[in-house]
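User: Show me an example of a complex going from sequences to structure tokens.

Assistant: Sure. Here are the input components:
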Amino acid sequence: MSYLYFPGCSLRSTGRPYEESILAVFRKLNIPLKELDDWNCCGATAYVSIDENRAFTLAARNLAIAERMQNNGNAGEDLMAPCSACYLVLEKTQHYMKTDEGVNTEVTAALRRGGFDYKGTTKVRHPLDILVNDIGIERIAKAVVRPMKGMKVACYYGCQVVRPFETFDHAAYPTTMDRLVTALGATAIDWPMKARCCGGSLTGTIQEAGLRLNRALLKEAEKRGANIILTCCPLCQHNLECYQKRINRRFGESIHIPVAYFTQFIGLALGIPRKELGIQRLFIPLKFADPPTKEAHAHA
Amino acid sequence: MKLPTPPALRTTVTNSPPRMKTVVRRLKFESELDLSFGEHVAERAYGQKLLSCIQCGTCSATCPLSHYMDYTPRKIIAMTREGFKDEVLNSLTIWLCASCYACTVQCPRQIHITDVMYALKREAIARGFYPARNPIPVLAKAFYERVRHDGRNTESRLLITLYLRTNPFKMLKEAMLGLHLFLTGRLSLKKEKIKGMKELRKMIDSVEPRKEAVPL
């Protein structure tokens, strides 16, 4: 089992701890990852607001490179995209190339211009899907050295990882991450906001609306007793964590809840040192002491 | 960056007595509508399903942003279908849509509402139908240019361009956040660029730019 890896622009800047923790966790589980050769931006939600077929072409170049790599010694390797926006854009491109003839003809022709003969075999996957459905919760649970006892986790999926295609989980009430953190020894709290939108880039554009969406998410997590929020998208993490101070100031709240990537949490449970997981890069420090290892538990 | 404040966000309430207003006709006559607008948008948002909307309002109910919008998604669909082109393209709604697809998965008629919003955004940008300093189209354009130039997006540079073009003072407001990101190693000014830029540009340029103009 091995995968092609599409980091995306976010994981090279604000989402750096996400990349660090993904690489560390996959290394620990002995799953090789190979970065996609000369990948380009997926186009996100902004590019498609200017020109749609060009946006599809931009994303399709990555799919075509992945297929080329599969044909050259990486057979059967799916393309892993950890950022929700990248994941959806790549998946959506694949979907419309298969279902819309106009899109397919135009994009295939454009790819040919760049020397790609794309057959459409690339499969786009999210690390959450891979960890739970390919590697398996049991295998991860076996590798746990520090059970995360006493942690009450609000699993936050955001929108684009489950919607609109519902590839591996339910669109309104997903449970993949909840099952995963339960296997790590933590408690996943039940909360209805797990797939509600964080507003994406609205915090940078129409901030008043963006902050209100995040405030609702944070308050609900707090009310239900979560002591950490886990995300699987760099933009959700950025919004919920980096704007927390501003939300408190703007609305007179006193929310203080760390927001980490789910891969960082897995890494802690697997006993990977904090520095390798990029925990020091979080704005709101994870103050809890690392839980004792299984052996220490047994002694006590 | 003066946005028309939607009613839901207004914090002050005026207590002044109601004044006599000029009488304005608030409805449009059919002759003033663009009757082909609905068909035109439907064609650009995957299928004629848009025209089969039953106005149940599920989209407005699921939308986490609908209470900040000037027209709810249900209204936008009705207005698009009936040809209220100017109102639709001038609305704040299309810019508030954060593409979370909540409406799309719930729609009983399987209308791709998020794609409809994208189609309307493209229409509005192509026709210059937005408040001059509305940061969203500015961001979209800056993003487009950056990716066209480097093949990748460098977040820090994109944000600097955005603030310079909309509200430079906002950059000062965001400076502390930027500094914090920089200190934690989460913001770099180093430009990200791909090697196959020539090949990528050739591919992109070979795609005929979509003509968004509505036949009038």
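The lines above are the inputs; the final block is the predicted structure for all two components together. Chain A touches chain B through 63 residues (CB under 8 Å).
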